[in-house]
Amino acid sequence: MFDLEWTEEAKASFARLKNSADFQKQYKAVKKSLGFLAANPKHPSLQTHPFTSLEGPNKEKVFEAYAENDTPGAFRIFWYYGPSKQVITILAIVPHP
Questions:
Q1: Quick check: 72 pLDDT over 90?
Q2: For the chain, what is the domain count?
Q3: pLDDT for 3-50, tens place per residue?
Q4: CA 89-92-97 angle, 5° bins
Q5: For residue 55, what are the CA distances in angstroms to 20, 45, 65, 82?
Q6: Rg of the Cα trace of the chain?
Q7: Predicted structure pTM score
Q8: How far is 41 from 62, CA to CA, in rounded Å?
C-alpha cells in the first residue's frame, strides 16, 4: 500500500471536482482511481503508463493513470513515486484534452 501526497495544484483540482455538482460523476471516478493507485499503481483499470512530457521536481519519471476512459472530458491523474519509499505524489488531476 502506498501513501498519497499531493501537490497544491492536485489538491485544488480534486477539491473543485468534489465541490462541483456538475462533476460528481468525475469526482467519484477520480476518487476510486486514487484508491486503486494507493493499493496497486499497476491496477489494470488505471492503464498506467509513463508520461514523457512531464518530470517531477527532482526529475522523477511521471506516470499517467486513467480515472475514466472512452468518455468525453475523461480525467487523468499524473503522479510519480516519492519523495520517499511507499509514497506516491499526485502531481495533477486534469481532464483529457
A1: no
A2: 1
A3: 999 999 999 999 999 999 999 999 999 999 999 999 999 999 999 999
A4: 145
A5: 29, 23, 15, 12
A6: 12
A7: 0.93
A8: 12
The arithmetic mean of pLDDT across residues 76-88, rounded, is 96
* Structural domain harbouring 73: 3-95
Q: Which three cell numbers stand for residue 15?
A: 477539491
The enclosing domain of 57 has a CATH number of 3.30.2310.20
78: left (phi over 0), alpha (psi -120 to 50) or beta: beta
Give SS3 for 66: strand
Indicate the length of the chain as a whole number: 97
Residue type, 22: D
Residue with cell 526529475: 59
What grid cell was written down for 39? 493499493
What's the rounded Cα separation, in Å, for the pair 11 and 14? 5
Angle between helices 8-19 and 24-39 (to 10 degrees): 140
- At 95, phi and psi to the nearest 5? -75, 145
Residue 87, pLDDT above cutoff 90:
yes
DSSP helix/strand/coil, 59: coil
